[in-house]
Amino acid sequence: MANHVGKDGIVKIGSDDLGELRSWNYSVVGEVIEDTSMGDTARTYQAGLTTWSGSAEAFWDEADTAQTALTAGSSITLAFYPEGDTAGDTYYSGSAIVTEVSSTAAMDGMVEVSFSFTGSGALTSSTV
Q1: Which percentage of the chain shows pLDDT scores above 90?
Q2: Per-residue pLDDT, 1
Q3: How many Cβ atoms are within 10 Å of 32's Cβ, its own excluded?
Q4: Average confidence score pLDDT of the chain
Q5: How far is CA 103 from CA 61, 85, 114, in A?
Q6: Which of 11, 23, 44, 50 to pair with 58, CA 20 to 30 A apart?
Q7: What distance lies between CA 101 and its chain's CA centroid?
């Protein structure tokens, strides 16, 4: 079974790599709908809709095309490459809406920026 190191990860906004990337995450959640009725002896459920959301953190770079495309309320195409983007690598992509952009800075640190998004439609798995 293979495993991978985080430093190989890539996030793409459209076809542009998100520059100065420090970390990223996404989560896919499946809704559960209860369909238990009177007389049942145990609760039962049906699968509902799925949703996904995530975030990415980077060092701020005002010249980075991908970073400048991430404005609150914008619709984007987003792709996560956990193992890089060479032939045969798996990646996950979908359309999303940027829900938050925040920045932090400290006297003894780098200026950082964080982007949060909510998926619109399915997050799909593909291979480079």
Answers
A1: 97
A2: 63
A3: 10
A4: 96
A5: 11, 28, 6
A6: 50
A7: 14
CB atoms inside a 10 Å sphere around CB 91: 19
**Rounded to whole angstroms, what are the CA distances from 82 to 4, 85, 91, 118, 128?**
8, 9, 7, 19, 12
Q: CA 63 to CA 69: how far, in whole Å?
A: 11
Torsion of CA 119, 94, 79, 33, to 10 degrees: 50
Distances from the Cα of 1 to the Cαs of 4, 25, in angstroms? 10, 22
Is residue 19 within 8 Å of residue 61, measured between CB atoms? yes
Q: Are 34 and 48 in contact (CB under 8 A)?
A: no
Record the pTM.
0.88
Domains in the chain, ordered, with CATH?
Answer: 6-28+50-127 (2.30.110.20)
